[in-house]
């Protein structure tokens, strides 16, 4: 349990998938509370702490996964590819932030979520809702059934979670460049309007 305690202290995560042999063989997940309680009592094994995990395909809608997790009172779901291999995981927090935008504490400092850069491009917090961004900038970015944020739009256009430096272009010529992302989330995107549109707005 000493190794697990070190892991808990070094990471802010509250849930940990449990697998056997290969990463694709996920048995369930454990919570940090269960692990800490087990370490305090100094008895028991991880096997007794494993909770049931839900498996969902990559193509399922975020809102459907959220409803399933809420109904089952589960904290996360394992996302699997068509072939059955594990693509990753999503938590309730991930789903809520994707659907309604990033959740901030009232104690966190307010940050600028839309900022125009000297070259005319616009740096945007990727968790910003597409509807809000359209309203603020006078754009007509599409809102689809599987996304509502700028990050979700970029992922949908790219076909998978894009890495920093990835660029995607919409039909109207607007370009989205991912400038900050983790293996699980797109954080910031640089938006570039078509050159003609920029020239008109400056006129």
Concise account of the structure shown:
The chain has 203 residues and is α+β, with helices and mostly antiparallel strands. Helix content is 32%, strand content 25%.
Description:
The chain has a five-stranded antiparallel beta sheet with strand order 6-7-10-9-8, with helices on one face. The protein has two domains: 2-100, CBS-domain (Roll); 114-202, 2-Layer Sandwich (Uridine Diphospho-n-acetylenolpyruvylglucosamine Reductase, domain 3). The longest helix has 11 residues, at 62-72. Helix content is 32%, strand content 25%. The chain has helices spanning 2-10, 32-41, 62-72, 92-100, 130-137, 150-158, 195-202, and strands at 15-19, 26-31, 54-57, 76-80, 86-91, 114-116, 122-125, 167-169, 175-181, 186-192. Helix 3 (62-72) packs across helix 4. It is of the alpha+beta class and 203 residues long. The chain contains seven helices and ten strands. Strand 9 and strand 10 (186-192) form a beta hairpin.
């Amino acid at each position: 349990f000493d190794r697990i305690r070190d892991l808990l202290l070094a990471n802010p995560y509250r849930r940990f998938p449990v697998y056997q042999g290969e990463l694709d063989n996920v048995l369930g997940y454990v919570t940090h509370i269960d692990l800490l309680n087990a370490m305090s009592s100094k008895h028991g094994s991880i096997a007794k702490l494993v909770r049931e995990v839900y498996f969902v395909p990559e193509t399922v809608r975020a809102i459907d996964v959220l409803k399933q997790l809420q109904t089952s009172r589960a904290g996360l779901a394992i996302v699997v590819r068509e072939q059955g291999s594990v693509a990753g995981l999503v938590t309730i927090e991930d789903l809520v932030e994707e659907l309604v935008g990033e959740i901030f504490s009232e104690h966190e400092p307010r940050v600028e979520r839309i900022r125009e850069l000297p070259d005319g491009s616009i740096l945007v917090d990727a968790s910003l809702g597409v509807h809000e961004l359209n309203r603020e900038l006078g754009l007509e970015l599409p809102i689809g059934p599987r996304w509502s944020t700028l990050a979700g739009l970029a992922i949908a256009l790219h076909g998978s979670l894009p890495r920093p430096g990835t660029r995607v272009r919409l039909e109207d010529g607007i370009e989205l460049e991912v400038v900050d992302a983790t293996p699980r989330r797109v954080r910031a995107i640089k938006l570039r309007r078509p050159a003609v549109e920029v020239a008109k707005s400056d006129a």
